[in-house]
């Protein structure tokens, strides 16, 4: 009920601001004097608020100043204040706010309602807002803070339509989450009523009595079943949402408040089986043809497709296990249940992908046997990659467009770290990239070969021996760890959590170890061998500790489950101990690259591909326990709805 009251007040402020913005725009269009309003901007002077410790939580902050404004703007300022005073809210400058804190008369309006210094908090979720927020903080340190005692009302940030739109989206999301929480309360009430009914029926059956009617009368008098506050508030939210956010379209309102989950189709299962059979058949044909022609060897292009397919398969296994163990991954990742990927969909994408790849490989062999030139035949993998990229960015609403575009947004957020706000799904995806460094290196080599063959900019040998491409290996090996480190830095700035700095240190140590191993591959001497052993051992121990203690929540000596944690989803405890051992073994696979183990019957590239596959399998195995720990933490905190910040806050409350 308190959250509902807060959101109603937020909505009233938003409606007042939108009304005055629209009136000002109409006034500008009808008036020849456009000096006071320009470009649709609400030209009210907004003085930057003093730098506060919660910058990372609140994002861009601004206060409406009532100080030095031109006479042409004075009437508009009074109109804004009058419109908002009915809610007990006034925009005041820093001097007025100081008087209010001292108990001066500036803290009350005509109706004896206390005024508050209103602050518009738009989270810094995009690079533009982040850069603007950081710049404003630096400006306040250099310019505004020394003059804080002087008369306020100087120039500053302006509130415009974009900020109003951001505030509207925040309030809309808050109403959606409030409605979802009310729905959970309603379900909680009905489920407990059903449980009491069944318990009493069981009692009557066992005790041969008819006591349930009298007991049920008492149960129905209980507040959890007799109160209709949740239902009435749900109806109120529906009416408010329909009026203010859905243009009086109730059908549109229900799409937001009660999104329909996508029905699982048996056609997906059918095509998974069909493409699996096609893949097995085509791969068998390819193996026979390659053996007969004597050209069976692992290539870079095939490794790229195989590692991608393996990762998709492991993600499908994760989705299956999360569903089987009732881990709410959609809530954890903030996915929309109506269009989130199911495990069958993941398997369908994986099998379709691999069937296409193996089919292209068979066509490649047949064309090569038919006498086509190598330059023509070798273009097939490049064409296949271009087709997959075109499907990934296809704007039409086909082939899982919401999932494809969400994936692209996540990749954009990762690549631009730390400018975007870091969500758990961004962290999860960046962790996947740290396990796909061999894939990224294969992609660099593949791109180099295709450029050499198509545009004739360099020879094929340059891709292995050229200085530029050898240096690019360092960059590609560092990038995933750098992105994760920047995400940890962003979260430390926002949350002031020292654990984020410690997590950042883990990725920095991984970067140092990766660089040492790459250098040792070029300079095989005792000094670099010792450096590789020390850095890799330190990074591995660091990573194992973080995996078990922080990410999985295990190795708790005080737990009732020996060296695990108190709450376990899997009933068989031995699975956790075996998973710990498996993670240790797969984490130390780097020893092979240092010791240089080679087998005569297995080529070096095949062994590298095998080790890269083991890392992908380890990451898929790690994913399950990471989300299990997050789910257990959410359940322990009774966290069932997403916390949403509101845009308008009392600056004095800080």
Automatic annotation (TrEMBL):
Name listed for the protein in its UniProt record: Phosphate transporter PHO1
Membrane topology summary: Multi-pass membrane protein
Primary localization class, coarse: membrane
Family (UniProt): Belongs to the SYG1 (TC 2.A.94) family.
Annotated region (Disordered), positions in chain: 23-77, 95-115
Residue ranges annotated for the EXS domain, each copy included: 464-654
Domain SPX positions: 1-217
Keyword tags: Membrane, Transmembrane, Transmembrane helix
């Amino acid at each position: 009920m308190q959250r509902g009251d807060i959101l109603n007040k937020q909505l009233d402020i938003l409606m007042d601001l939108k009304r005055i913005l629209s009136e000002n725009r109409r006034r500008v269009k009808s008036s020849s004097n456009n000096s006071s309003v320009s470009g649709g901007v609400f030209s009210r002077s907004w003085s930057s608020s003093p730098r506060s410790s919660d910058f990372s939580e609140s994002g861009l902050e601004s206060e409406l100043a009532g100080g030095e404004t031109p006479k042409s703007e004075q009437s508009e300022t009074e109109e804004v204040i009058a419109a908002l005073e009915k809610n007990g809210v006034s925009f005041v400058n820093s001097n007025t706010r100081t008087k209010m804190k001292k108990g001066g008369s500036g803290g009350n309006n005509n109706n004896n309602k206390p005024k508050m210094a209103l602050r518009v908090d738009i989270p810094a979720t995009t690079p533009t807002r982040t850069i603007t927020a950081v710049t404003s903080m630096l400006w306040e340190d250099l310019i505004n803070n020394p003059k804080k005692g002087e008369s306020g009302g100087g120039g500053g940030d302006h509130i415009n339509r974009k900020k109003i739109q951001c505030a509207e989206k925040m309030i809309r999301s808050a109403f959606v989450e409030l409605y979802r929480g009310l729905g959970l309360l309603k379900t909680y009430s009905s489920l407990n009523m059903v449980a009491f009914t069944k318990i009493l029926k069981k009692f009557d059956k066992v005790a041969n009595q008819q006591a349930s009617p009298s007991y049920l009368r008492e149960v129905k008098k209980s507040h959890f079943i007799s109160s209709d506050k949740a239902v009435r508030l749900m109806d109120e939210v529906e009416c408010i949402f329909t009026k203010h956010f859905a243009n009086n379209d109730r059908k549109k309102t229900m799409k937001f408040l009660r999104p329909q989950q996508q029905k699982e189709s048996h056609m997906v299962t059918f095509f998974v089986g069909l493409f699996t059979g096609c893949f097995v058949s085509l791969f068998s044909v390819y193996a026979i043809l390659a053996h007969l022609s004597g050209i069976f060897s692992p290539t870079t292009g095939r490794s790229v497709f195989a590692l991608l397919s393996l990762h998709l398969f492991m993600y499908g296994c994760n989705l299956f296990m999360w569903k089987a163990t009732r881990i709410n991954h959609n809530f954890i990742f903030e996915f929309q249940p109506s269009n989130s990927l199911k495990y069958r969909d993941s398997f369908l994408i994986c099998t379709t992908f691999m069937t296409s790849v193996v089919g292209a490989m068979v066509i490649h062999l047949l064309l090569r046997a038919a006498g086509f030139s190598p330059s023509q035949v070798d273009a097939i993998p490049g064409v296949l990659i271009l087709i997959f990229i075109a499907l990934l960015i296809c704007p039409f609403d086909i082939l899982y467009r919401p999932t494809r575009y969400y994936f692209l947004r996540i990749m954009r957020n990762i690549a631009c770290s730390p400018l975007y706000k870091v969500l758990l799904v961004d962290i999860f995806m960046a962790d996947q990239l740290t396990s796909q460094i061999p894939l990224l290196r294969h992609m660099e080599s593949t791109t180099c070969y295709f450029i050499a063959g198509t545009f004739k900019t360099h020879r094929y040998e340059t891709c292995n021996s050229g200085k530029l491409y050898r240096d690019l290996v360092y960059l590609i090996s560092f990038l995933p760890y750098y992105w994760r480190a920047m995400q940890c830095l962003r979260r430390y700035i926002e949350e002031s959590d020292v654990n984020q700095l410690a997590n950042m240190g883990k990725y920095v140590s991984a970067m140092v170890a990766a660089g040492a191993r790459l250098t040792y591959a070029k300079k095989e001497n005792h000094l670099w061998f010792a450096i590789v052993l020390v850095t890799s051992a330190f990074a591995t121990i660091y990573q194992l500790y973080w995996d078990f203690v922080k990410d999985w929540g295990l190795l708790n000596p005080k737990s009732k489950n020996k060296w695990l944690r108190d709450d376990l989803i899997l009933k068989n405890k031995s699975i956790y101990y075996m998973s710990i051992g498996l993670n240790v073994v797969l984490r130390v696979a780097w020893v092979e690259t240092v010791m240089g183990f080679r087998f005569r019957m297995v080529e070096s590239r095949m062994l590298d591909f095998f080790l890269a596959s083991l890392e992908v399998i380890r990451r898929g195995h790690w994913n399950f326990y990471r989300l299990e720990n997050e789910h257990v933490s959410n359940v322990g905190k009774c966290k069932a709805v997403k916390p949403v910040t509101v845009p308008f806050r009392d600056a004095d409350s800080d």
